[in-house]
Amino acid sequence: NLGDGEASCIACALQRKGIVVTDDRMARSTCKERAIAVTGTLGILKAAYLDGILQIEEADTMLKQMVDYGFYSPVQKISDTL
Q1: Which of 17, 24, 61, 82 is 20 to 30 A away from residue 33, measured at CA?
Q2: Per-residue confidence of the chain (82 residues) as pLDDT tens digits?
Q3: pTM of the model
């Protein structure tokens, strides 16, 4: 029951040994079943901090703004994942 976009990303990642970036639960589950690397919004914000692209305060602020606009997050701050 994946959408066309998720299915295409998974097929491409499987073929090219890539990483799928999604927050969709079914797509993430499908990736895990097929041993495809997967990350989501939180992983991208964390990587941006770890790579020096964002300061931790900026990543935390971005996440807060996303939550304020309806994004579901299991954590309140990216700094909570470090």
Answers
A1: 82
A2: 899 999 999 999 999 999 999 999 999 999 999 999 999 999 999 999 999 999 999 999 999 999 999 999 999 999 999 9
A3: 0.82
